[in-house]
Structures are given as structure tokens and as C-alpha cells.
Amino acid sequence: MENIKNLVYIAVRSLFSLILIVSGSTMLYLGGKSPVSYTVKAAQNFSDAFENTGYFFYFIGIVMVIIGLLVILNKYVALALVIFMPVSINMVLFHLFLMPQSGIPAYFVLLMNAYLMFKNLDKYRPLLAVN
């Protein structure tokens, strides 16, 4: 049973990393432009605002690639997951409020992030200790 749990952890960690590396690389390849066009006007306006900053999609792309590499290489995984959690939450909130019908990938990323954090809970215990 322990082997199955380890295989599930490795599979989730690998899929999570792959999603982040591919998505982040796509943002960088597109030159800081949004990788998606939205049919809902509010969602497109939100995306356009970030694109118009000239840096946001580059920044998120770099963060996603770095986090994906750290997680797949099993280096600083607990830290990488904490850093990425606000991005995961924002992805879900974007879809909940602006495009709920297309949010399944975002929900899946948040669930994977939370699962991986739960599996690394022992590394967070010192941060949560009351002194």
C-alpha cells in the first residue's frame, strides 16, 4: 500500500510540474502575451490588463517554470509549493468569478498543489508552531 501512495505522489508531482513547465514556457514563448483568448468580455479585459503591463505574463511564466523545475527535481518542494499557492488560488478565483464553465484545469492545479503541500506537511510544522 505504501508503494501505491508513493507512486501516486510521484505521478501528481510529475503532472503538476509538467503543467507548470509547459504553461510557463508557453507564456515566455508568446513574448509576454496571454496564452488564451476569452469569450467572456470581463475575463478578456482582466487578461488584457495584465498583458498591457508588459511584464506580468513574463513574470508568471518565469515563476511557473522555476516552480515546475524545483518540484520535478525534488528540490525545495515545500517552499516552491507555498510560493505557487497564491497563483493557484488566483487561477481558481478567476474562473469562479469570470468563467466558471472553463475552470476545471485551474481547479485541478489547485487540488494538486494542496495535495502536494499536504504530503509535505511535516516540513511546514515548524512554521506553524506557536512559540
Automatic annotation (TrEMBL):
Q: What lineage, starting at the top, does this entry show?
A: Bacteria, Bacillati, Bacillota, Bacilli, Lactobacillales
Q: Which organism is it from?
A: Leuconostoc kimchii
What Pfam families is this protein classified in? DUF3185
InterPro entries xrefs: DUF3185
- Membrane spanning stretches: 7-30, 55-73, 78-98, 104-121
> Which keywords, in A-to-Z order, does the entry hold?
Membrane, Transmembrane, Transmembrane helix
Protein name per its UniProtKB record: DUF3185 family protein
